[in-house]
User: What shape does this take?
Amino acid sequence: MKKSSITFDQVIERGCGIDVHKKVIVVTIKGNGIKETTKTFISFAESIEQMHDWLKAEKITHIAMESTGVYWKPL
Assistant: This one.
C-alpha cells in the first residue's frame, strides 16, 4: 500500500518553534535560506539573551511557543 503525503504552501519564510520546559528551552528554526537547526538553552537570563541574539541573527520572523505552566513568562 502506497502512503500518501500532505503538502502545504509555505506562508512563513523564516520560523521558529520553541518548547519551554522548567530548566531548558528547546528551539528549532526552519525556513528559506537557513539550515533546519535545533538548539537547547538553559532557562536563565543570559542564555535567553543568547537565544534572542541567535534568532535575530537568523532573521526569524515568526515564533510558535509551547509551554506547560508558567515557564514561558521569562521569554
